[in-house]
Amino acid sequence: MSNVATALVERIPAGAPEGLARGVQKALAALVHIQETVAEVAKNRESTKLGHAKQLAIYAKSTAIPDLFKARRQFKYAKELVDGKRAQLHAAAKGKALPTDAEWREVIRKMDPNKAAEFLLRNPAARGPALRERELAFLTEGVYEHVMQKEIQENHHRAGAELQCAERTLELHRLAVNEVESAVLAMPIVTTDSGEVSSFSSKPAFEKFADTLLPGIAAKEISAQERAELIAA
């Protein structure tokens, strides 16, 4: 396993949701396979660079590029799962509307913004009304986030800790997918009529190549099997 892959695996937090951790591991497995294949092909001294490029182009079409787009699809789905967890937690932190909400928001609106923030941090009863209707309470986005985190910390600590763990794991998944993408773009499979070999000059150049080689791959939706691999998240 490469140094990057090893480092990312070691950073998966203890208690990470199984599905999210699996997403990181699968992306890194694709990365390692690409790196090892490129290295193995390069060892063949009986073949020219053009021969290597042709061999790797076959591998790119059959494995590397499909694996990259699968990793992208799974990351997108994993992000949807984490976004859903966050939305559920924030809804729980806001709580249900109460008859006194409007009165609390009127009190908050009359305060200096800095004093309003301090007031909300000290008064749990006022947080719900402000969080439920941020605009009506005249809360800035920064104050809203601060108050939300205070409410989660005090009354939804376990769910908040689980969300933080999931978010850290998702960030590792993003980094892993980026590494797979970089490895694919670095593959020496771009050839010219004169026999020159290079890697892709840019991401748009790769995307165009991938769409030509495997039409519709970028638009392909995540399959039930690919979702199932992450469903435990």
Descriptive report:
72% of the residues lie in helices and 2% in strands. By secondary structure, it is mainly alpha-helical. It has 2 domains: 3-92 and 172-228; 93-158, no CATH class. The chain has a two-stranded antiparallel ribbon with strand order 1-2. Strand 1 and strand 2 (197-198) form a beta hairpin. Helix 1 (3-10) runs antiparallel to helix 8 (157-185), helix 3 runs antiparallel to helix 8 (157-185) and helix 7 packs across helix 8 (157-185). The model has no long low-confidence stretch (mean pLDDT 95).
Mean pLDDT: 95
Please indicate the percent range of residues in DSSP E strands (runs of 2 or more).
under 5%
Biggest sheet strand order reads: 1-2
Whole-number total of structural domains: 2
Question: SSE layout and pairings?
Answer:
Blueprint: H1 3-10, H2 18-42, H3 49-94, H4 101-109, H5 113-122, H6 124-132, H7 141-155, H8 157-185, E1 190-191, E2 197-198, H9 203-213, H10 224-228
Antiparallel strand pairs: 1-2
